[in-house]
Protein: LacI family transcriptional regulator
Organism: Duganella aceris
Amino acid sequence: MSEPKIQDVARLAGVSPSSISNFLNNRMEQMRPDTQRKIQQAIEQLGYRPNNAARQLKTGVAKMVGLLVPSLANQFFGSLACAVETAAARHQCHVMTFSTFRDPDRERAVMADLLAYGVQGIITGSALNDTDHLAAMTSRCPVVAFDIKRSEDNHERIMTISVDNAAATAMAVEHLVALGHRSIALVSPPPYTLNRQDRLKGFQQAIAQAGIAGELVIADATDTPPSDPHGDTQLFELGRSAAARILAAPGKPTAAIAINDMMAIGIGVGLKQLGLRIPDDFSLIGIDDIFFSAAHDPPLTTLRQPIQAMADAAVQRILAPGAGQVAELFPPELIVRASTAAPK
Amino acid sequence: MSEPKIQDVARLAGVSPSSISNFLNNRMEQMRPDTQRKIQQAIEQLGYRPNNAARQLKTGVAKMVGLLVPSLANQFFGSLACAVETAAARHQCHVMTFSTFRDPDRERAVMADLLAYGVQGIITGSALNDTDHLAAMTSRCPVVAFDIKRSEDNHERIMTISVDNAAATAMAVEHLVALGHRSIALVSPPPYTLNRQDRLKGFQQAIAQAGIAGELVIADATDTPPSDPHGDTQLFELGRSAAARILAAPGKPTAAIAINDMMAIGIGVGLKQLGLRIPDDFSLIGIDDIFFSAAHDPPLTTLRQPIQAMADAAVQRILAPGAGQVAELFPPELIVRASTAAPK
DNA sequence: CTGTTAGCGCCTTCAA
DNA sequence: TTGAAGGCGCTAACAG
């Protein structure tokens, strides 16, 4: 069971441990080809793997970044984790992911764990409203937060990455207007977060610019409890129970923009239960482009967040500090599928 | 930036490093209460965190298990990762998750990485057909594989955990028969894996027992390329393009059991495009109970895999070897939703 | 080009 | 109840 160590390899290869170390760290110019070959062979023969803990203890750095998400059971964050893993791999770096379940205590605890592992930085997709604690982390390691917006409250040292929220809703409005809609609803939970406020702002500006009717429908009550506490089913339920109120809104909207896909899907189901057909009777558009948007019926038109590009940028910020801006907004991409059409 | 170390705490508390160590390892009986208090205070004042690498190097074990999944972007495996994280946390253990993208080379590489981190064991939800390599790992650390079935080919030392596949399809048949269906199709990709063969077997036995018509529809061709290479969209597309063939099957099935939910959802969409309504014109049942099954239209009847229980068992096998069986089958649970009804 | 050496931070006897 | 000391496996000078 006990793993072979660098000494064993050295002995077998008939060279010194430092040559093995050089070999492992790709300093090939420091040895003759045949030494190289012997080392290679010895390593394979023994099935030798360097011990990360020892290496880390010595060098002081772990090739590792930490990732915090609300829950991996939430499809959006599963995709994010996958993208971050891919991005980190480009830098020979591994990712340690923790689910926080949006629990502030747990968030604090796992950040401490991450620090104990010596991660090079922390990426969070689970930023709490209280950014003070996050800001405090920046004195320990670089911190990149997805989807929170810089404000006076949060320290300069938190790097932020977000989709351009105002652009997303504005593009949604433009798409709908181009289709001929003249009255559009924006459906959202209470816009507590700056992100949601940005989406609202983008919506209102685009509505004003197009000179059409815009309705804000706040979805904040649901009759059925969430079936999965961590999967963000709430938004689905919220959307579903908002369907009737959307139709009854003052401007008689013929289309709705949901704050995200999960909610859009819920709205769609609610609308169908009310007897409407999508997109014939009503158009629907989401934000995110989660996996199931394409597999939905009808396939959902949405504004895709460029997750991989955002993940790449996040990892870059951690591993090559100073290489990029502190705050960056990524443009969403309109994915036209079958949930939007001209109004009747 | 440099973290405080045990010496610093000792100095500040006015005690020796070993007392700090005793404190950290909960050997409180070895010191006076006031020493304890002083240490506690010093730790907090410094924001001290023990260095995992040093601890691991010294003790030889990392409180960590490794998890391999095809991709976290696949909702089922995101849920699995979440469940494993929860299970491991009960043992003060962390999880390092890697996506393999079903690439054998990558699978081998990440297993080696996991070993280098000194994980206590490896849980894989991404077992390749070639179990030899997996079996070879068992000499390095305990290995638990989800969803592969023990056979003569794979070594005794791979511990396996799986839902009872035969029971799942059998229960699905029984549910459908109770509803009045007399001709049922099982839709599956080619049943290369033992798991799928078991599902097929359970289906056939249940069909025979009920004395009704059973049809096997192999879905192996799709016209549209997968939209997400790692999200298992293939099964969705496969299901969708199989819809017509299901209806045309010899026995004129009035209901279908899909090999999993993803495929069931695809079949449902395909069927609807053909003008059928579910469950009025046709009943559909899946296996897994992924998140979106409940949020689908109509909500999908399915056989739930008890993921948390399975994850608990997997972690148990790793952390408390000998505590459980080597191979274990978990009973699926029938979740009746709205995609099944009596035939017309 | 290769070997020797001194720790990285912590844990754990062992002695005081 | 506390302190001193050795070493886990590896890396990076530095000396040969």
